[in-house]
Amino acid sequence: MGRAVRVIVVEDHSRTRRELVGALSADARTEVAGESATGDGGVALAEKVQPDVAVVDLGLPDLSGAVVLERIARAAPACRSLALTVCDDPARVLEAVLAGASGYLLKDAPVEEIVDAVVELAGGRAPVSSRVAGALLERVRSVAARPPRVPLTRRESDVLAYFVEGFTYQEVAVALGVSPLTVHGYAKSLYEKLDVTSKAEAAAWAARNGYGRA
Predict the structure, then answer these.
(1) Which of 42, 55, 87, 175 has a C-alpha 20 to 30 A away from that of 193?
(2) Segment 33-80, tens digit of pLDDT
(3) Cα 28 from Cα 12, distance rounded (Å)
(4) 21 and 93 part of one domain
């Protein structure tokens, strides 16, 4: 880039914030345009200075990380956000990404790595810590390994679960408080969706594919 990357730091821990601001100020590639200890303050700051990058702690005291990321994305559309957190849980990572984070680093990363990540973000890349990337890959693998889900209605799912437990049509009818004829109607629709022809085949399909009554 032809100019320094303008950065804001949104971090409630004063020592961590000072370290980040100091490292970013000392690097010729970056320029600190402001800092805030709260999410509301960070959003207001982003709207005021329109930075290139926002470094955002996800553990702020006033707002959730996802809310802060979403609001910064609206307040400063050209700004890219780097999420910082102590958590490498894939669900939290995905939540942050969906909320607007373009990069994700753990807070125990060396400050030099965070500065490099800010520059990478401004250059269009998406830095992610190796631990976070590994956790995401495991989540993707586990999801890919799951069998495809069939869009059953609530009643079809109930009937299938009772079939797995060995209930007869009459017993399912009593359990659901409907007539046996109604259960047969649910079962017919269920069989068509699962491409099976009997209660036993439906139960076997459910066992293979992880369906059951919660």
Answers:
(1) 175
(2) 999 999 999 999 999 999 999 999 998 999 988 899 999 999 999 999
(3) 25
(4) yes
- The CATH number assigned to the domain holding 52 equals 3.40.50.2300
Q: Could you tell me which of 8, 117, 17, 20 has the C-alpha nearest to residue 54?
A: 8
In angstroms, the CA 197 to CA 185 distance is: 13
Domain count, the chain: 2
Contacts 24+ apart (CB under 8 A), 91-99: 91/139, 92/58, 93/132, 93/135, 93/136, 94/136, 94/139, 95/65, 95/66, 96/58, 96/65, 96/66, 96/69, 98/66, 99/65, 99/66, 99/67, 99/69, 99/70, 99/73
Chosen domain end from 126, 144, 162: 144
Look-up of token digits 């009643």: 155
- Alpha-carbon dihedral 66, 70, 75, 78, rounded to 10 degrees: 110
What domain range is 73 assigned to?
5-144
- Do 86 and 106 touch, CB atoms closer than 8 A? yes
- pLDDT tens digits for 172-190? 999 999 999 999 999 999 9
Half-sphere exposure of 44 (CA within 13 A, CB side): 7
**Closest C-alpha to 5, from 27, 37, 36, 38:** 27
Sign of CA dihedral 123, 87, 130, 94: negative
Judge whether 140 lies within some domain: yes
Cβ count near 122 (within 10 Å): 23
- Read off the pLDDT of each residue in 125-149 and give the average, rounded to a whole number: 66
